[in-house]
């Protein structure tokens, strides 16, 4: 171990509200799309309406997702988009994943430098 300050593992920077597979997929879809209709997201993510609603509620309560309700004709619709806080949280989460996936063993104990290596495809949209 080097003589510098102890650096905690980047996994501590992962956001538990984003980290579950459905919420991560939802955040990634919204980061890549901007705004999307609830039904389209449900079909894209291959989850039930109730499961997606539960995950949206967690992200909405965290201030990460904006829920907009309206009508198309006489049919009610719900659209989702990331808030600024949601975009920032997703980018920080993806950065932590990049560091985890590209930092060699033992490198966290060395002086800080930019990690090298491929960026995980799941975080390219951030």
UniProtKB/TrEMBL annotation:
Domain Winged helix DNA-binding: 22-98
Pfam families cross-referenced by the UniProt entry: HTH_34
Protein name: Winged helix DNA-binding domain-containing protein
InterPro entries assigned: WH-like_DNA-bd_sf (IPR036388), WH_DNA-bd_dom (IPR027395), WH_DNA-bd_sf (IPR036390)
Coiled-coil portions: none
Region spans: Disordered: 105-126
Domain of life of the native organism: Bacteria
Transmembrane segments: none
């Amino acid at each position: 171990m080097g003589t510098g300050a102890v650096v905690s593992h980047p996994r501590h920077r992962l956001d538990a509200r984003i980290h579950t597979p459905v919420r991560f997929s939802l955040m990634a879809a919204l980061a890549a799309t901007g705004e999307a209709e609830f039904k389209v997201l449900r079909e894209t993510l291959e989850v039930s309406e109730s499961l997606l609603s539960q995950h949206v509620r967690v992200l909405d309560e965290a201030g990460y997702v904006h829920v907009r309700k309206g009508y198309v004709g006489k049919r009610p619709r719900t659209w989702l988009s990331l808030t600024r806080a949601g975009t920032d949280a997703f980018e920080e989460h993806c950065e932590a994943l990049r560091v985890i996936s590209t930092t060699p063993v033992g490198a966290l104990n060395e002086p800080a430098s930019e990690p090298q290596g491929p960026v995980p495809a799941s975080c390219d949209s951030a």
